[in-house]
What we know:
Elements: E1 2-6, E2 14-17, E3 22-33, H1 37-48, E4 53-57, E5 68-69, E6 79-80, H2 91-97, E7 103-104, E8 108-116, E9 119-126, H3 131-141, H4 145-164, H5 175-178, H6 184-192, H7 195-202, H8 206-213, H9 230-239, E10 249-250, H10 254-268, E11 271-274, E12 277-284, E13 296-302, E14 307-317, H11 321-327, E15 345-351, H12 363-366, E16 370-373, H13 377-388, E17 397-400, H14 412-415, E18 420-426, H15 439-452, E19 463-469, H16 471-478, H17 504-508, E20 517-519, H18 533-546
Parallel strand pairs: 3-4, 3-14, 4-11, 8-16, 14-20
Antiparallel strand pairs: 1-2, 2-3, 5-6, 7-10, 8-9, 12-13, 13-14, 15-18, 15-19, 16-17, 17-18
Helix pairs in contact: 1-10, 1-18, 4-6, 7-8, 8-13
Amino acid sequence: MVSRWFGRPGSGWYATTGDGKAQRQVTAEVAIVGGGHNALVAATYLARAGLDVLLLERLDDVGGAAVSAQTFPEHDARLSRYSYLVSLMPQALVDDLGLRLELRSRDTASYTPYERDGEARGLLVETGEGDATRASFRELTGSDDAFEAWQEFYAEVAMLADAVAPTFLRPLPRRADLGPVVDQQVWTDVVEQPLGVALERRFDDDLVRGVVGTDGLIGTFASLHDPSLAQNRCFLYHLVGNGTGEWRVPVGGMGAVTGELERAARAAGVRFMTGAEVDAVTPWGPDPSVGDEDHWVAVEGDDGDGAFLVRAGWVLSGIAPSALHDLVPQPDDEPPRHHPSGSQLKINLLVSRLPRLRSGDDPRIAFAGTFHVDEAMSQVEALHVAASHGEQPFASGELYCHTLTDRSILGPELAASEAQTLTYFGLHTPYENLLDDGAAEREYRRFLTAIDAHLAEPLEPLVLGVEVKTPADVEVALAMPGGHIFHGDLAWPWLEDDEPADSPAQRWGVATAHDRVLLCGSGARRGGAVSGIGGHNAAHALLEMLGRRP
Length: 550
Protein backbone atom coordinates (compact mmCIF):
# COMPACT_ATOMS: atom_id res chain seq x y z
CA MET A 1 0.00 0.00 0.00
CA VAL A 2 1.41 3.42 -0.98
CA SER A 3 2.35 5.56 2.01
CA ARG A 4 4.59 8.35 0.72
CA TRP A 5 5.64 9.83 -2.62
CA PHE A 6 9.04 11.25 -3.62
CA GLY A 7 9.41 13.59 -6.58
CA ARG A 8 6.94 14.64 -9.21
CA PRO A 9 4.68 12.22 -11.07
CA GLY A 10 6.45 10.76 -14.08
CA SER A 11 8.39 7.76 -15.30
CA GLY A 12 11.25 6.86 -12.99
CA TRP A 13 10.02 8.45 -9.78
CA TYR A 14 9.70 6.39 -6.64
CA ALA A 15 7.38 5.72 -3.72
CA THR A 16 7.72 3.76 -0.53
CA THR A 17 5.40 1.12 0.85
CA GLY A 18 4.35 0.82 4.46
CA ASP A 19 7.49 -1.20 5.21
CA GLY A 20 9.76 1.43 3.62
CA LYS A 21 10.56 -0.63 0.51
CA ALA A 22 11.30 1.47 -2.59
CA GLN A 23 9.18 0.93 -5.67
CA ARG A 24 9.93 1.69 -9.29
CA GLN A 25 7.10 3.88 -10.55
CA VAL A 26 5.48 3.81 -13.99
CA THR A 27 2.57 5.83 -15.33
CA ALA A 28 -0.14 4.85 -17.79
CA GLU A 29 -3.52 6.16 -18.76
CA VAL A 30 -4.87 2.60 -18.56
CA ALA A 31 -3.35 -0.38 -16.77
CA ILE A 32 -4.70 -3.83 -17.54
CA VAL A 33 -4.15 -6.53 -14.91
CA GLY A 34 -3.88 -9.95 -16.50
CA GLY A 35 -2.80 -10.75 -20.07
CA GLY A 36 -5.40 -13.21 -21.28
CA HIS A 37 -7.05 -13.00 -24.67
CA ASN A 38 -9.75 -10.60 -23.43
CA ALA A 39 -7.12 -8.27 -22.02
CA LEU A 40 -5.35 -8.21 -25.38
CA VAL A 41 -8.60 -7.30 -27.13
CA ALA A 42 -9.32 -4.47 -24.66
CA ALA A 43 -5.75 -3.17 -24.88
CA THR A 44 -5.87 -3.04 -28.68
CA TYR A 45 -9.11 -1.08 -28.84
CA LEU A 46 -7.94 1.42 -26.22
CA ALA A 47 -4.49 1.93 -27.75
CA ARG A 48 -6.02 2.43 -31.18
CA ALA A 49 -8.17 5.17 -29.65
CA GLY A 50 -5.00 6.98 -28.61
CA LEU A 51 -4.71 5.94 -24.97
CA ASP A 52 -1.42 4.93 -23.32
CA VAL A 53 -2.04 1.32 -22.29
CA LEU A 54 0.16 -0.87 -20.09
CA LEU A 55 -0.68 -4.58 -19.83
CA LEU A 56 0.66 -6.54 -16.84
CA GLU A 57 0.85 -10.33 -16.99
CA ARG A 58 1.98 -12.64 -14.16
CA LEU A 59 3.43 -15.25 -16.52
CA ASP A 60 6.29 -14.81 -18.97
CA ASP A 61 3.91 -15.00 -21.95
CA VAL A 62 0.47 -13.56 -22.60
CA GLY A 63 -2.64 -15.50 -23.58
CA GLY A 64 -3.84 -16.98 -20.30
CA ALA A 65 -5.85 -20.13 -21.03
CA ALA A 66 -5.79 -19.52 -24.81
CA VAL A 67 -2.27 -20.81 -25.45
CA SER A 68 -0.46 -23.65 -27.17
CA ALA A 69 2.52 -25.51 -25.76
CA GLN A 70 4.83 -28.39 -26.60
CA THR A 71 3.31 -30.32 -23.73
CA PHE A 72 5.49 -33.40 -24.23
CA PRO A 73 9.14 -32.29 -24.69
CA GLU A 74 10.14 -35.45 -26.54
CA HIS A 75 7.36 -35.04 -29.14
CA ASP A 76 7.03 -32.17 -31.62
CA ALA A 77 3.36 -31.29 -31.06
CA ARG A 78 1.92 -27.99 -29.83
CA LEU A 79 -1.33 -28.70 -28.04
CA SER A 80 -4.03 -26.20 -27.07
CA ARG A 81 -3.31 -26.74 -23.42
CA TYR A 82 -6.47 -25.43 -21.75
CA SER A 83 -9.11 -24.03 -24.12
CA TYR A 84 -9.39 -25.69 -27.49
CA LEU A 85 -12.32 -24.62 -29.73
CA VAL A 86 -13.77 -21.29 -30.83
CA SER A 87 -17.47 -20.46 -31.13
CA LEU A 88 -18.39 -17.27 -29.30
CA MET A 89 -15.76 -14.98 -30.84
CA PRO A 90 -17.83 -12.72 -33.11
CA GLN A 91 -16.68 -12.51 -36.70
CA ALA A 92 -17.27 -8.77 -36.48
CA LEU A 93 -14.62 -8.55 -33.75
CA VAL A 94 -12.15 -10.64 -35.78
CA ASP A 95 -12.67 -8.36 -38.77
CA ASP A 96 -12.51 -5.18 -36.68
CA LEU A 97 -9.14 -6.13 -35.17
CA GLY A 98 -7.79 -7.39 -38.49
CA LEU A 99 -6.97 -10.82 -37.09
CA ARG A 100 -5.56 -13.33 -39.55
CA LEU A 101 -7.30 -16.43 -38.23
CA GLU A 102 -8.54 -19.58 -39.90
CA LEU A 103 -11.33 -21.38 -38.06
CA ARG A 104 -12.27 -24.70 -39.67
CA SER A 105 -15.58 -26.51 -39.45
CA ARG A 106 -15.67 -30.17 -38.50
CA ASP A 107 -17.62 -32.63 -40.67
CA THR A 108 -18.77 -34.47 -37.55
CA ALA A 109 -20.63 -32.53 -34.87
CA SER A 110 -20.72 -35.40 -32.38
CA TYR A 111 -20.49 -39.14 -31.97
CA THR A 112 -21.82 -41.02 -28.95
CA PRO A 113 -20.99 -44.72 -28.48
CA TYR A 114 -23.59 -46.87 -26.73
CA GLU A 115 -24.64 -50.47 -26.32
CA ARG A 116 -28.12 -51.86 -27.00
CA ASP A 117 -29.09 -55.52 -26.75
CA GLY A 118 -25.45 -56.49 -26.28
CA GLU A 119 -24.35 -54.78 -29.49
CA ALA A 120 -21.99 -51.79 -29.64
CA ARG A 121 -23.25 -48.90 -31.75
CA GLY A 122 -22.83 -45.15 -32.10
CA LEU A 123 -25.08 -42.11 -32.51
CA LEU A 124 -23.61 -39.94 -35.27
CA VAL A 125 -24.57 -36.29 -35.72
CA GLU A 126 -23.11 -34.64 -38.81
CA THR A 127 -22.34 -30.92 -38.82
CA GLY A 128 -24.75 -30.62 -41.74
CA GLU A 129 -27.34 -33.10 -40.51
CA GLY A 130 -28.21 -35.42 -43.38
CA ASP A 131 -29.26 -38.97 -44.14
CA ALA A 132 -26.51 -40.53 -42.04
CA THR A 133 -27.68 -38.60 -38.98
CA ARG A 134 -31.32 -39.55 -39.55
CA ALA A 135 -30.36 -43.21 -39.97
CA SER A 136 -28.27 -43.12 -36.80
CA PHE A 137 -31.18 -41.73 -34.77
CA ARG A 138 -33.49 -44.35 -36.27
CA GLU A 139 -31.07 -47.12 -35.29
CA LEU A 140 -30.99 -45.80 -31.72
CA THR A 141 -34.72 -45.27 -31.18
CA GLY A 142 -36.49 -47.36 -33.83
CA SER A 143 -38.23 -44.42 -35.51
CA ASP A 144 -37.67 -40.93 -36.97
CA ASP A 145 -39.41 -39.24 -34.03
CA ALA A 146 -36.23 -38.50 -32.04
CA PHE A 147 -34.46 -36.97 -35.03
CA GLU A 148 -37.45 -34.79 -35.85
CA ALA A 149 -37.69 -33.68 -32.21
CA TRP A 150 -33.95 -32.89 -32.33
CA GLN A 151 -34.35 -30.78 -35.46
CA GLU A 152 -37.36 -28.94 -34.06
CA PHE A 153 -35.61 -28.13 -30.78
CA TYR A 154 -32.43 -26.82 -32.40
CA ALA A 155 -34.41 -24.80 -34.96
CA GLU A 156 -36.09 -23.04 -32.04
CA VAL A 157 -32.74 -22.55 -30.27
CA ALA A 158 -31.40 -21.02 -33.50
CA MET A 159 -34.15 -18.39 -33.32
CA LEU A 160 -33.03 -17.57 -29.77
CA ALA A 161 -29.43 -17.36 -30.97
CA ASP A 162 -30.43 -15.04 -33.82
CA ALA A 163 -31.92 -12.65 -31.26
CA VAL A 164 -29.12 -12.83 -28.68
CA ALA A 165 -25.86 -13.10 -30.65
CA PRO A 166 -26.04 -9.66 -32.33
CA THR A 167 -26.29 -7.99 -28.89
CA PHE A 168 -22.94 -9.30 -27.60
CA LEU A 169 -20.96 -6.34 -28.94
CA ARG A 170 -23.49 -3.74 -27.84
CA PRO A 171 -24.63 -2.42 -24.46
CA LEU A 172 -26.69 -5.05 -22.63
CA PRO A 173 -30.30 -5.35 -23.73
CA ARG A 174 -33.10 -5.74 -21.22
CA ARG A 175 -34.79 -9.10 -20.73
CA ALA A 176 -38.03 -7.43 -21.83
CA ASP A 177 -36.37 -6.48 -25.14
CA LEU A 178 -35.63 -10.10 -26.03
CA GLY A 179 -38.49 -12.18 -24.66
CA PRO A 180 -41.17 -10.86 -27.04
CA VAL A 181 -39.08 -11.50 -30.18
CA VAL A 182 -38.29 -15.14 -29.31
CA ASP A 183 -40.61 -18.14 -29.58
CA GLN A 184 -42.24 -18.47 -26.16
CA GLN A 185 -41.73 -22.21 -25.91
CA VAL A 186 -37.94 -22.10 -26.40
CA TRP A 187 -37.73 -19.03 -24.12
CA THR A 188 -39.46 -21.05 -21.40
CA ASP A 189 -37.32 -24.13 -22.05
CA VAL A 190 -33.97 -22.33 -21.98
CA VAL A 191 -34.55 -19.24 -19.83
CA GLU A 192 -37.38 -19.80 -17.37
CA GLN A 193 -37.29 -23.42 -16.17
CA PRO A 194 -34.53 -25.98 -15.54
CA LEU A 195 -33.16 -27.37 -18.79
CA GLY A 196 -33.81 -30.92 -17.66
CA VAL A 197 -37.56 -30.30 -17.79
CA ALA A 198 -37.40 -29.49 -21.50
CA LEU A 199 -35.10 -32.43 -22.22
CA GLU A 200 -37.45 -34.90 -20.56
CA ARG A 201 -40.51 -33.44 -22.32
CA ARG A 202 -38.98 -33.18 -25.79
CA PHE A 203 -36.86 -36.35 -25.98
CA ASP A 204 -37.81 -39.90 -24.97
CA ASP A 205 -34.33 -41.38 -25.16
CA ASP A 206 -31.91 -41.03 -22.21
CA LEU A 207 -28.86 -40.90 -24.47
CA VAL A 208 -30.30 -38.14 -26.68
CA ARG A 209 -31.22 -36.13 -23.59
CA GLY A 210 -27.64 -36.37 -22.37
CA VAL A 211 -26.07 -35.41 -25.70
CA VAL A 212 -28.20 -32.24 -25.73
CA GLY A 213 -27.81 -31.51 -22.02
CA THR A 214 -24.03 -31.70 -21.74
CA ASP A 215 -23.72 -28.32 -23.46
CA GLY A 216 -25.15 -26.97 -20.23
CA LEU A 217 -22.54 -28.69 -18.06
CA ILE A 218 -19.15 -27.89 -19.61
CA GLY A 219 -17.54 -25.56 -17.10
CA THR A 220 -20.54 -25.74 -14.77
CA PHE A 221 -21.19 -27.99 -11.77
CA ALA A 222 -24.94 -28.34 -11.69
CA SER A 223 -27.76 -30.80 -12.12
CA LEU A 224 -29.77 -30.42 -15.29
CA HIS A 225 -32.68 -29.79 -12.90
CA ASP A 226 -30.84 -27.19 -10.79
CA PRO A 227 -33.28 -24.39 -9.83
CA SER A 228 -30.46 -21.83 -10.06
CA LEU A 229 -30.53 -22.33 -13.87
CA ALA A 230 -26.71 -22.18 -13.99
CA GLN A 231 -26.88 -25.06 -16.48
CA ASN A 232 -29.34 -23.12 -18.65
CA ARG A 233 -27.05 -20.11 -18.86
CA CYS A 234 -24.10 -22.34 -19.79
CA PHE A 235 -26.26 -24.04 -22.43
CA LEU A 236 -27.25 -20.69 -23.94
CA TYR A 237 -23.63 -19.55 -24.29
CA HIS A 238 -22.66 -22.84 -25.92
CA LEU A 239 -25.39 -22.53 -28.57
CA VAL A 240 -25.39 -18.86 -29.64
CA GLY A 241 -21.92 -18.17 -31.03
CA ASN A 242 -22.24 -16.04 -34.19
CA GLY A 243 -25.88 -17.06 -34.34
CA THR A 244 -25.03 -20.66 -35.28
CA GLY A 245 -23.45 -22.12 -32.14
CA GLU A 246 -20.87 -23.95 -34.26
CA TRP A 247 -17.60 -24.76 -32.47
CA ARG A 248 -14.69 -24.51 -34.89
CA VAL A 249 -11.05 -25.55 -34.86
CA PRO A 250 -8.43 -22.76 -34.75
CA VAL A 251 -5.79 -23.67 -37.32
CA GLY A 252 -2.44 -23.63 -35.54
CA GLY A 253 -4.12 -24.19 -32.19
CA MET A 254 -5.17 -21.68 -29.56
CA GLY A 255 -1.69 -20.21 -29.64
CA ALA A 256 -2.46 -18.93 -33.14
CA VAL A 257 -5.43 -16.99 -31.73
CA THR A 258 -3.34 -15.44 -28.97
CA GLY A 259 -0.47 -14.76 -31.37
CA GLU A 260 -2.74 -12.72 -33.61
CA LEU A 261 -4.20 -10.81 -30.67
CA GLU A 262 -0.73 -10.02 -29.35
CA ARG A 263 0.37 -8.88 -32.80
CA ALA A 264 -2.59 -6.53 -33.05
CA ALA A 265 -1.97 -5.16 -29.56
CA ARG A 266 1.73 -4.46 -30.18
CA ALA A 267 0.96 -2.85 -33.53
CA ALA A 268 -1.48 -0.54 -31.72
CA GLY A 269 1.26 0.54 -29.32
CA VAL A 270 0.32 -1.38 -26.19
CA ARG A 271 3.16 -1.66 -23.66
CA PHE A 272 3.74 -5.02 -21.97
CA MET A 273 5.10 -6.03 -18.56
CA THR A 274 5.36 -9.81 -18.29
CA GLY A 275 6.49 -11.70 -15.22
CA ALA A 276 4.64 -9.00 -13.26
CA GLU A 277 2.92 -10.32 -10.15
CA VAL A 278 0.31 -7.79 -8.98
CA ASP A 279 -0.15 -7.57 -5.20
CA ALA A 280 -2.59 -4.68 -4.81
CA VAL A 281 -5.00 -2.51 -6.80
CA THR A 282 -5.86 0.65 -4.88
CA PRO A 283 -8.29 3.32 -6.13
CA TRP A 284 -7.21 6.77 -4.90
CA GLY A 285 -8.78 10.20 -4.78
CA PRO A 286 -7.01 13.53 -5.34
CA ASP A 287 -3.67 13.86 -3.50
CA PRO A 288 -2.92 17.54 -2.85
CA SER A 289 0.48 16.66 -1.35
CA VAL A 290 1.86 16.11 -4.86
CA GLY A 291 -0.43 18.51 -6.67
CA ASP A 292 -2.83 15.87 -7.94
CA GLU A 293 -6.40 16.91 -8.64
CA ASP A 294 -7.62 13.76 -10.36
CA HIS A 295 -8.70 10.34 -9.19
CA TRP A 296 -6.36 7.52 -10.12
CA VAL A 297 -5.55 3.88 -9.34
CA ALA A 298 -2.33 2.39 -7.95
CA VAL A 299 -1.29 -1.06 -9.15
CA GLU A 300 1.52 -2.55 -7.08
CA GLY A 301 3.55 -5.70 -7.52
CA ASP A 302 6.91 -7.23 -8.39
CA ASP A 303 8.28 -8.16 -11.81
CA GLY A 304 11.45 -9.96 -10.77
CA ASP A 305 13.55 -6.83 -11.08
CA GLY A 306 12.01 -5.42 -7.94
CA ALA A 307 8.84 -3.80 -6.69
CA PHE A 308 6.86 -1.58 -9.06
CA LEU A 309 3.94 0.76 -8.83
CA VAL A 310 1.82 1.73 -11.82
CA ARG A 311 -0.04 4.99 -11.44
CA ALA A 312 -3.00 4.72 -13.82
CA GLY A 313 -6.05 6.76 -14.55
CA TRP A 314 -8.06 3.59 -15.08
CA VAL A 315 -7.60 -0.14 -14.45
CA LEU A 316 -9.15 -2.99 -16.40
CA SER A 317 -9.12 -6.38 -14.73
CA GLY A 318 -8.70 -9.50 -16.82
CA ILE A 319 -8.44 -11.68 -13.72
CA ALA A 320 -11.35 -13.33 -11.93
CA PRO A 321 -13.59 -10.95 -9.95
CA SER A 322 -12.88 -12.87 -6.75
CA ALA A 323 -9.12 -12.49 -7.36
CA LEU A 324 -9.57 -8.76 -7.98
CA HIS A 325 -11.58 -8.50 -4.75
CA ASP A 326 -8.57 -9.87 -2.86
CA LEU A 327 -6.30 -7.21 -4.36
CA VAL A 328 -8.50 -4.20 -3.61
CA PRO A 329 -8.60 -2.89 -0.01
CA GLN A 330 -11.95 -3.73 1.57
CA PRO A 331 -13.79 -2.17 4.53
CA ASP A 332 -13.27 -3.97 7.82
CA ASP A 333 -16.92 -5.00 7.88
CA GLU A 334 -16.87 -6.32 4.28
CA PRO A 335 -18.02 -9.98 4.31
CA PRO A 336 -15.64 -12.50 2.68
CA ARG A 337 -16.26 -12.98 -1.02
CA HIS A 338 -17.18 -16.45 -2.17
CA HIS A 339 -14.43 -17.87 -4.36
CA PRO A 340 -15.58 -19.99 -7.30
CA SER A 341 -15.00 -23.71 -7.53
CA GLY A 342 -14.26 -25.29 -10.90
CA SER A 343 -15.47 -28.75 -11.80
CA GLN A 344 -13.85 -29.85 -15.04
CA LEU A 345 -10.91 -32.20 -15.55
CA LYS A 346 -8.68 -31.67 -18.59
CA ILE A 347 -6.58 -34.49 -20.07
CA ASN A 348 -4.30 -33.85 -23.06
CA LEU A 349 -3.14 -36.90 -25.00
CA LEU A 350 -0.86 -37.64 -27.92
CA VAL A 351 -1.56 -41.07 -29.43
CA SER A 352 0.28 -43.02 -32.11
CA ARG A 353 -3.04 -43.57 -33.92
CA LEU A 354 -6.75 -43.48 -33.20
CA PRO A 355 -8.11 -46.57 -31.43
CA ARG A 356 -10.54 -48.93 -33.13
CA LEU A 357 -14.15 -48.82 -31.91
CA ARG A 358 -16.26 -51.78 -30.75
CA SER A 359 -19.05 -50.52 -32.99
CA GLY A 360 -16.83 -50.93 -36.04
CA ASP A 361 -17.48 -47.31 -37.04
CA ASP A 362 -14.63 -45.39 -38.65
CA PRO A 363 -12.69 -43.67 -35.84
CA ARG A 364 -11.72 -40.84 -38.21
CA ILE A 365 -15.40 -39.95 -38.39
CA ALA A 366 -16.26 -40.70 -34.75
CA PHE A 367 -13.40 -38.67 -33.25
CA ALA A 368 -13.64 -35.78 -35.72
CA GLY A 369 -16.31 -34.06 -33.64
CA THR A 370 -17.24 -34.20 -29.97
CA PHE A 371 -16.92 -37.81 -28.79
CA HIS A 372 -19.28 -38.29 -25.83
CA VAL A 373 -18.16 -40.78 -23.17
CA ASP A 374 -20.92 -42.06 -20.87
CA GLU A 375 -22.94 -38.85 -21.09
CA ALA A 376 -26.51 -40.18 -21.11
CA MET A 377 -28.66 -37.92 -18.94
CA SER A 378 -29.07 -40.54 -16.21
CA GLN A 379 -25.30 -41.02 -16.08
CA VAL A 380 -24.36 -37.33 -15.76
CA GLU A 381 -27.11 -36.79 -13.18
CA ALA A 382 -25.89 -39.77 -11.14
CA LEU A 383 -22.33 -38.48 -11.29
CA HIS A 384 -23.44 -35.03 -10.14
CA VAL A 385 -25.17 -36.53 -7.09
CA ALA A 386 -22.10 -38.62 -6.23
CA ALA A 387 -19.67 -35.74 -6.75
CA SER A 388 -21.84 -33.51 -4.56
CA HIS A 389 -21.10 -35.98 -1.77
CA GLY A 390 -17.36 -36.03 -2.43
CA GLU A 391 -17.36 -39.21 -4.51
CA GLN A 392 -16.08 -39.81 -8.07
CA PRO A 393 -17.27 -43.35 -8.86
CA PHE A 394 -16.84 -43.15 -12.66
CA ALA A 395 -15.83 -40.80 -15.46
CA SER A 396 -18.21 -38.97 -17.76
CA GLY A 397 -17.03 -36.45 -20.34
CA GLU A 398 -16.11 -35.79 -23.94
CA LEU A 399 -13.16 -36.06 -26.29
CA TYR A 400 -12.03 -33.86 -29.16
CA CYS A 401 -9.35 -34.56 -31.79
CA HIS A 402 -7.74 -31.37 -33.14
CA THR A 403 -5.44 -33.08 -35.63
CA LEU A 404 -8.19 -34.70 -37.69
CA THR A 405 -9.08 -31.17 -38.79
CA ASP A 406 -5.70 -29.41 -38.51
CA ARG A 407 -2.37 -31.24 -38.57
CA SER A 408 -0.31 -28.05 -38.55
CA ILE A 409 0.21 -28.37 -34.79
CA LEU A 410 2.32 -31.49 -35.40
CA GLY A 411 5.97 -31.49 -36.44
CA PRO A 412 6.85 -33.05 -39.83
CA GLU A 413 7.57 -36.54 -38.50
CA LEU A 414 4.39 -36.79 -36.46
CA ALA A 415 2.31 -35.15 -39.21
CA ALA A 416 3.50 -37.80 -41.67
CA SER A 417 2.48 -40.58 -39.27
CA GLU A 418 -0.92 -41.68 -37.95
CA ALA A 419 -0.41 -39.75 -34.71
CA GLN A 420 -3.30 -37.70 -33.34
CA THR A 421 -3.96 -35.43 -30.38
CA LEU A 422 -6.93 -36.06 -28.10
CA THR A 423 -8.35 -33.70 -25.50
CA TYR A 424 -10.71 -34.98 -22.80
CA PHE A 425 -12.93 -32.70 -20.74
CA GLY A 426 -14.36 -34.50 -17.72
CA LEU A 427 -17.68 -33.43 -16.23
CA HIS A 428 -18.52 -33.06 -12.54
CA THR A 429 -14.99 -33.26 -11.14
CA PRO A 430 -15.17 -30.55 -8.44
CA TYR A 431 -12.09 -28.76 -7.18
CA GLU A 432 -12.70 -29.95 -3.62
CA ASN A 433 -12.80 -33.61 -4.65
CA LEU A 434 -9.42 -33.63 -6.42
CA LEU A 435 -6.99 -32.02 -4.00
CA ASP A 436 -4.94 -35.04 -2.91
CA ASP A 437 -1.65 -35.98 -4.56
CA GLY A 438 -3.09 -39.02 -6.30
CA ALA A 439 -6.15 -37.29 -7.79
CA ALA A 440 -4.75 -36.76 -11.31
CA GLU A 441 -3.58 -40.35 -11.73
CA ARG A 442 -6.82 -41.70 -10.25
CA GLU A 443 -8.99 -39.67 -12.61
CA TYR A 444 -6.83 -40.63 -15.59
CA ARG A 445 -7.42 -44.30 -14.74
CA ARG A 446 -11.15 -43.68 -14.47
CA PHE A 447 -11.09 -42.04 -17.89
CA LEU A 448 -9.25 -45.03 -19.38
CA THR A 449 -11.81 -47.41 -17.92
CA ALA A 450 -14.67 -45.36 -19.35
CA ILE A 451 -13.24 -44.97 -22.85
CA ASP A 452 -11.95 -48.54 -23.09
CA ALA A 453 -15.51 -49.83 -22.64
CA HIS A 454 -16.29 -48.43 -26.08
CA LEU A 455 -13.05 -49.47 -27.81
CA ALA A 456 -12.02 -52.65 -29.58
CA GLU A 457 -8.55 -52.28 -28.04
CA PRO A 458 -7.17 -50.58 -24.92
CA LEU A 459 -6.19 -46.94 -25.38
CA GLU A 460 -3.14 -46.80 -23.10
CA PRO A 461 -0.70 -48.76 -25.35
CA LEU A 462 -1.33 -46.11 -28.03
CA VAL A 463 -0.55 -43.17 -25.73
CA LEU A 464 2.72 -41.35 -26.49
CA GLY A 465 2.17 -38.61 -23.93
CA VAL A 466 -0.44 -37.64 -21.35
CA GLU A 467 -1.01 -34.53 -19.24
CA VAL A 468 -3.74 -34.32 -16.61
CA LYS A 469 -5.00 -30.97 -15.30
CA THR A 470 -7.36 -31.01 -12.31
CA PRO A 471 -9.15 -27.78 -11.35
CA ALA A 472 -6.50 -27.33 -8.66
CA ASP A 473 -3.77 -27.62 -11.32
CA VAL A 474 -5.52 -24.99 -13.43
CA GLU A 475 -5.72 -22.72 -10.39
CA VAL A 476 -1.97 -22.98 -9.82
CA ALA A 477 -1.01 -22.60 -13.48
CA LEU A 478 -3.36 -19.77 -14.44
CA ALA A 479 -4.27 -18.19 -11.07
CA MET A 480 -7.94 -18.93 -11.76
CA PRO A 481 -9.60 -19.25 -8.33
CA GLY A 482 -10.86 -22.79 -7.88
CA GLY A 483 -9.74 -23.58 -11.42
CA HIS A 484 -13.09 -22.23 -12.65
CA ILE A 485 -12.73 -21.76 -16.40
CA PHE A 486 -15.43 -19.05 -16.52
CA HIS A 487 -14.10 -17.21 -13.41
CA GLY A 488 -17.47 -18.03 -11.80
CA ASP A 489 -20.96 -19.02 -12.89
CA LEU A 490 -22.12 -17.39 -16.09
CA ALA A 491 -24.76 -14.65 -16.01
CA TRP A 492 -27.57 -14.08 -18.50
CA PRO A 493 -26.36 -11.90 -21.40
CA TRP A 494 -28.97 -9.24 -20.66
CA LEU A 495 -30.06 -6.98 -17.83
CA GLU A 496 -33.06 -7.85 -15.74
CA ASP A 497 -35.73 -5.23 -16.02
CA ASP A 498 -34.96 -3.79 -12.57
CA GLU A 499 -31.14 -3.84 -12.85
CA PRO A 500 -29.48 -0.42 -12.86
CA ALA A 501 -27.88 0.84 -16.08
CA ASP A 502 -26.86 4.33 -14.98
CA SER A 503 -23.23 4.20 -16.13
CA PRO A 504 -21.46 2.96 -19.26
CA ALA A 505 -19.82 0.23 -17.14
CA GLN A 506 -23.21 -1.04 -16.02
CA ARG A 507 -24.68 -0.83 -19.51
CA TRP A 508 -21.78 -2.81 -20.98
CA GLY A 509 -21.71 -5.37 -18.11
CA VAL A 510 -18.18 -4.57 -16.88
CA ALA A 511 -18.81 -2.61 -13.66
CA THR A 512 -17.15 -3.21 -10.30
CA ALA A 513 -17.66 -1.48 -6.96
CA HIS A 514 -15.02 1.10 -8.03
CA ASP A 515 -15.75 3.57 -10.81
CA ARG A 516 -12.21 3.50 -12.19
CA VAL A 517 -11.83 -0.28 -12.18
CA LEU A 518 -13.64 -2.29 -14.87
CA LEU A 519 -13.86 -6.00 -15.62
CA CYS A 520 -12.52 -7.06 -19.01
CA GLY A 521 -12.07 -10.83 -18.59
CA SER A 522 -14.23 -13.94 -18.42
CA GLY A 523 -15.81 -12.61 -15.22
CA ALA A 524 -17.43 -9.74 -17.10
CA ARG A 525 -21.06 -10.04 -18.13
CA ARG A 526 -21.03 -12.04 -21.37
CA GLY A 527 -17.52 -13.30 -20.58
CA GLY A 528 -16.49 -16.93 -20.58
CA ALA A 529 -14.93 -19.05 -23.35
CA VAL A 530 -12.52 -17.68 -25.95
CA SER A 531 -14.56 -14.83 -27.38
CA GLY A 532 -12.89 -11.47 -26.76
CA ILE A 533 -16.34 -10.10 -25.89
CA GLY A 534 -15.39 -9.12 -22.33
CA GLY A 535 -12.37 -7.19 -23.58
CA HIS A 536 -14.31 -5.48 -26.36
CA ASN A 537 -17.07 -4.38 -24.02
CA ALA A 538 -14.76 -3.07 -21.29
CA ALA A 539 -12.86 -1.00 -23.84
CA HIS A 540 -16.06 0.42 -25.32
CA ALA A 541 -17.43 1.25 -21.87
CA LEU A 542 -14.26 3.15 -20.97
CA LEU A 543 -14.16 4.98 -24.29
CA GLU A 544 -17.78 5.99 -23.75
CA MET A 545 -16.85 7.35 -20.31
CA LEU A 546 -14.01 9.34 -21.86
CA GLY A 547 -16.10 10.58 -24.76
CA ARG A 548 -13.81 8.92 -27.32
CA ARG A 549 -14.60 6.89 -30.38
CA PRO A 550 -13.10 3.40 -30.70
